[in-house]
Amino acid sequence: MQKERLTGVKIGVVLTGSHCTIGGVLPQIEKLKEEGALIYPIVSYTVDDTDNRFYKVADLKKFLKQVTDKPIINTIVGAEPIGPQKILDVIVVMPATGNTIAKLAAGIVDTPALMAIKAHLRNQRPVVIAISTNDALGINARNLGLLLNMKNIYFVPFRQDDPHQKANSLLANLELVMDTTLCALQGKQIQPLLLGSL
């Protein structure tokens, strides 16, 4: 029997408001759990309270509670102890919106998601980012560049998901979240980072 690769690893899974991507994120949370990880769900304000055409907030929260068996962190006050108490081994931000990326690069902390990331980074521990934004190669390109060069930040490999209709859009390959996380825990950026077109 194969040993679970993440047994006992405490993973903060941060969900931000790329609502169309959440459906692809949920199976990855289950996979992390199946590998033995202890999952701590953290949500941005938008994810916490915005019903949309892709999911209902109540259904999402029910899923997170059932799969993780941990309370959902949905306030800045709730996220702050992640730093001083050294609660997590790694944070996985999936999906990571352009808004979250921009604020993280600028040091802005005004949501539970950003507080969790900031608090965790102060412990020099890895943060994995699964990008999902329509402006990554546009106005947000400089922020992407800053984060690519930031210590303890690791990216799930990504590609242009629709280069002809949305030339600035980038989307992480969520199937690589597991492998990226395993590499990040060893202080390595998984390669290749840039993926070819679908």
Provide a descriptive summary of the structure in words.
With 198 residues, the protein is α/β, with parallel strands linked by helices. The chain has a single domain (13-184), classed as Rossmann fold, CATH 3.40.50.1950. The chain has helices at residues 22-34, 45-49, 57-68, 76-79, 98-106, 112-121, 141-148, 177-184, and strands spanning 10-15, 38-43, 90-96, 127-133, 153-155, 158-159, 170-172. Strands 1, 2, 3, 4, 5, 6 and 7 form a seven-stranded mixed beta sheet that branches. Strand 4, helix 7 (141-148) and strand 5 (153-155) form a beta-alpha-beta unit. Helix 1 runs parallel beside helix 3 and helix 5 (98-106) crosses helix 7. The radius of gyration is 16 Å and the shape is globular. The termini are far apart.
Attribute tags:
single chain, 198 residues, alpha/beta, Rossmann fold, 7-stranded mixed β-sheet
Order of helices and strands: EHEHHHEHHEHEEEH
Class, according to the CATH hierarchy?
Alpha Beta
Profile the largest sheet. Answer: 7 strands, mixed
CATH topology: Rossmann fold
The coarse overall form would be globular
Helix content range: 25-40%
**Intertermini distance:** 34 Å
CATH superfamily membership, which one? Flavin prenyltransferase-like
